[in-house]
Design brief:
This protein is α/β, with parallel strands linked by helices. It contains 10 helices and 10 strands. About 30% of the residues lie in helices and about 15% in strands.
Amino acid sequence: MFKITRELIAAARTRNKVPARIKSTLGNDLKDLSPLATATAFVSSNDVVTDPRFPLRDLASAAPHLKLIHITGAGIEPLLPLDWLPKGVVLTNNSGVHVRKTAEFATMALLMLNARMPELVACQGKSRWEQIFTPTIAGKTVVVIGLGDMGGAAAREAKRLGLRVIGIRRRARPHRYADEILELRHLRRALRQADFIFVAAPLTPASRHLLGKDMLASAKAGAGLINVGRAGVVDYDALRAALTSGALSGAILDVYEQEPLPPSSPLWTTPNLILMPHCSSDDSERYMPLTLDLAFDNLRRLIAGRPLKNRVDPRRGY
């Protein structure tokens, strides 16, 4: 579903009314890199750009006309630090393509945690009948860490469910779907109120293990956690301990330090934990069409000298 094809490109060109003077080429497994010599924009995944066969450190000479690199995923951690990025070349990512699917997943995951579904699934696996009665979700509080496209989508759906939303971001700028915005330094105060914790933050040196042992210990007793951001934002060893002790009632994870998650990982046997194999926010039918729409829109903006969408800030790393 993440593969770019000629058919997808042709359909995107038609949708976006791309003029014939703008040429498109399609590479295949890095067998022919000659189109880079004349390319203005390059669309690819992290896997291709970090492949040893790709001239990452020699990009200025291999692609002297390059002005834009668009990465087909939201996270760019494999490309950091961005010291390889030639002067005058802008890097953009796929932020926003995941919004609709993330909104659906956020609704499902919040309702699952409210219904204690991880615990019920664990009981089913043990052939144990245990009735767990829960209240409706309206009126509860969710703390959304990271209010970008994905976190913002989760906040919007949480409001629709009747939850109170506390947003956590680097600067306390208002957000239309958050009842309260707090800076990172006030995270502990927010967690004390959280019935649910929704993690959608990027991974940076400042956010690694943001939710560690001490921070998780400050969370409201019985809270549930969802992580669709990056695995490194949460200390999974500390999370396992909190789930095993019952300090947290359940968790749903979609991201991991190592993917695929190896069979030896203790996460597989952690109680009250549901593991999603990194597929919560990827639309199997619309992911690549939306990606190409974004890429062609940015190419049009580049030609017109207008600001680009999803421009990555090398200093922040996202």
